[in-house]
Specification:
CATH topology of the largest domain: UDP-N-acetylmuramoyl-L-alanine:D-glutamate ligase
Strand content: 15-25%
Strand order of the largest sheet: 1-9-18-17-16-15-14-13-10-11-12
Helix content: 25-40%
CATH superfamily of the largest domain: Ribokinase
Number of strands: 18
CATH class of the largest domain: Alpha Beta
Shape: elongated
Number of helices: 14
Distance between the termini: 24 Å
Structural class: alpha/beta
Number of domains: 2
CATH architecture of the largest domain: 3-Layer(aba) Sandwich
């Protein structure tokens, strides 16, 4: 039972492929089920604290895992009951049911227990639970002290984060073999509680293109030869609403940048360490600049469009956010694609729709398609943020602090990403991992703050998070 940080993410189809590969290497459906069920039992044993356990089993292989877990828990000396939705429908689940020698209660009328293990539906569910079943699971879960979901809470989909109807609210979800997209994507993720990964024998490398975000592996302090330019020089272009650019500039400093240059007409707010200059296109040609930020508070008029055109022609890495995203027409996207230095786009849902059009496709798929089409790293912001690369890989964050839903926090994120991109001492780390590191710093800063914080507070909190790495 391990944390999920940095681990692969598999869709339902990919999970089936991984299981088939394991069977080609000598495993069987029965052996995988035995391994999974026993791993579930060990995790439940640690969490149950000798309380009575009710294992709710479905009719598929997830239910089979439940029967194996129930038997293993009984052999450990715990007080276990089993309730089932019906007779098993798969050969492996039928075999698992046959090994359970105790009574099996009807799930719809079963009495509750202190610990509920939800093994009714796992991966592959695409429809809403039947109302009678949903009501029974809600009754059992509400009466339980702890609800533990096996693989996924019953009622959530596997791949999209959708919850088509009522679903179990798990306190803990035991992901079997690999994390699934819905462990991270809302609203499904809000049903999962704490997620822990169980090894079920799929092997060390399951070759997923998607990964869960993780803590960055950065040097704790700059090296002895570090100076302000090796730590990273960031240029931020200010526009019609300079306060947003100032937030990005301060965030870049506090996320570790050594030098931040704020270009344009701005106020005189602290920190005074930010270097302020009048804007000129020539200033973006400074070869020491590691990253350029444009978009926060930029405006959307002809002046703003001209500033964006200058930034797209700069040689440094470019982070395009906010208003600048709204100015990205086909011509500018083509110019950005031709850049030699990396381009990072950081849209929230509304900005993403404005640039790429609305779609009912899953968020991960949309982000990957946008990255492929633009040649840019796309950071699709939201409760769960998706960092997608043109090469088809992506990193997905667990749901962030909901207090981030306030004005200016996106500007802080842009500055944090810019600081990591500009730093010279970590350029051996892949670009997507550096962008994800900026997102991680931003999320952790929010977790350090009490509720109802300001974006200014969030920028300040980055210093402590960066220093704690």
């Amino acid at each position: 039972m391990t944390p999920i940080d940095g681990t692969p993410i598999l869709s339902a189809a990919q999970m089936r492929g991984a299981e088939e590969a394991a069977m080609a290497a000598g495993a069987t459906v029965d052996s995988l089920m035995l391994t999974a069920g026993r791993a579930v039992a060990e995790a439940v044993r640690r969490l149950a604290a000798h309380a009575e356990i009710l294992v709710a089993c479905g009719t598929g292989n997830n239910g089979g895992d439940g029967y194996v877990a129930a038997l293993a828990l009984r052999e450990m000396g715990l007080d276990v009951r089993v309730a089932a939705l019906g007779e098993p429908r798969s050969e492996a689940a039928t075999a698992a049911r046959s090994r359970w020698m105790g009574p099996v209660e009807p799930l719809l009328t079963a009495d509750p227990a202190a610990i509920l293990v939800d093994a009714v539906f796992g991966t592959g569910l695409t429809r809403a639970l039947e109302p009678e079943l949903a009501a029974a699971l809600e009754r059992l879960s509400s009466a339980a002290r702890l609800t533990i979901a096996v693989d996924l809470p019953s009622g959530v989909t596997t791949d999209t984060g959708a919850v088509p109807g009522d679903a179990v609210l798990g306190d803990v979800t035991l992901a079997l073999g690999a994390v699934k997209p819905s462990h991270l994507l809302v609203p499904a993720a809000s049903h999962c509680g704490t997620i822990r990964l169980l090894d079920i024998g799929l092997g060390p490398d399951i070759g997923a293109a998607l990964r869960v975000a993780r803590r960055p592996d950065f040097p704790k302090t700059p090296g002895p030869s570090a100076h302000k330019y090796t730590r990273g020089m960031v240029a931020v272009v200010a526009g019609a609403m300079p306060g947003a650019a100032e937030l990005s500039a301060e965030a870049a400093l506090r996320a570790g940048a050594g030098y931040v240059l704020l270009l344009g007409n701005t106020g005189t707010t602290v920190p005074h360490a930010i270097v302020r200059r009048q804007y000129s296109a020539d200033a973006l040609g400074d070869t020491r600049i590691g990253a350029v930020v444009i978009g926060p508070g930029l405006g959307r008029d002809a002046v703003a469009a001209s500033l964006l055109d200058d930034a797209v022609l700069a040689d440094a890495s470019l982070i395009i956010d906010g208003d600048a995203l709204q100015l990205l027409d086909a011509g500018r996207l083509a110019t950005a694609r031709a850049r030699k230095a990396p381009t990072i786009l950081t849209p929230h849902e509304g900005e993403f729709d404005a640039v790429f059009g609305k779609s009912d496709a899953p968020r991960i798929e949309r982000a990957l398609t946008a990255a492929r089409d633009t040649g840019a790293i796309v950071v699709l912001k939201g409760a769960s943020t998706i960092i997608a690369s043109p090469d088809g890989t992506a990193i997905v964050t667990p749901p962030a602090d909901p207090w981030l839903s306030t004005a200016g926090t996106g500007d802080v994120l842009t500055g944090a990403i810019a600081a990591v991109i500009a730093a010279q001492d970590i350029r051996h780390i892949s670009l997507i991992d550096r962008v994800a590191a900026g997102v991680w710093l931003h999320s952790q800063a929010a977790r350090r703050l009490p509720g109802a914080f300001l974006a200014d507070d969030l920028a300040h909190a980055l210093s402590a998070v960066r220093a704690a790495l």
